[in-house]
Amino acid sequence: MISNLAQGVQAFTSNVFLVTGDRPVLVDTGANFDAVAAVSDRVDDLEAVILTHTHRDHVGNLAAVKEAFDVDAWGYDTAVDGVDHAIADEETVQLGDHDYVALHTPGHKNDHLCFYSAEASVLFAGDLIFQNGSFGRTDLEEGDRPTLIESIDRVLEWIDPDLEEMHTGHGPSVTNDPYGHVELSAQMARQT
């Protein structure tokens, strides 16, 4: 099961997804709210924190979560504070009950990863792609529009057209034709 622990939080934060099952993990930790209490209300233990990328709104709660649950954080770049273990491009990572392939998808930030499970029919898109054709900002440090477009195209090559769920770094998750939303993001990123 996948729950967004940041739903309804008014502070500036990313979404925070608790994936329960055989390997309970947190995808991003968010910022500016009590993520530890939100996790504790739902599960007794976490096995890992998995990071889509390390912008502050996604990792502001990282130290508190790592300390409270005695877990390590996994991300693309261990040179970034708080990232204990590297996830390589196309490495398989277990989230909950399913295996996901990690896709290195820079353009919004150099260390950005998306996670896709064909079996679960789920994509964690981080800040690369959002609903309704929106896409990650490229005006921040490490942002680059041509690279972002390449990353969106890469995700399109991996995901199934029948994808059931796309969980994004901000805004609502997409359960109505997520593949179409990714296609639209690829088009919109080329136009603006």
From TrEMBL:
<dbReference type="GO" id="GO:0016787">
    <property type="term" value="F:hydrolase activity"/>
</dbReference>
<dbReference type="InterPro" id="IPR001279">
    <property type="entry name" value="Metallo-B-lactamas"/>
</dbReference>
<keyword id="KW-0479">Metal-binding</keyword>
<keyword id="KW-0862">Zinc</keyword>
<dbReference type="InterPro" id="IPR051453">
    <property type="entry name" value="MBL_Glyoxalase_II"/>
</dbReference>
<keyword id="KW-0378">Hydrolase</keyword>
<dbReference type="Pfam" id="PF00753">
    <property type="entry name" value="Lactamase_B"/>
</dbReference>
<feature type="domain" description="Metallo-beta-lactamase">
    <location>
        <begin position="13"/>
        <end position="170"/>
    </location>
</feature>
<dbReference type="GO" id="GO:0046872">
    <property type="term" value="F:metal ion binding"/>
</dbReference>
<dbReference type="InterPro" id="IPR036866">
    <property type="entry name" value="RibonucZ/Hydroxyglut_hydro"/>
</dbReference>
<protein>
    <recommendedName>
        <fullName>Metallo-beta-lactamase domain-containing protein</fullName>
    </recommendedName>
</protein>
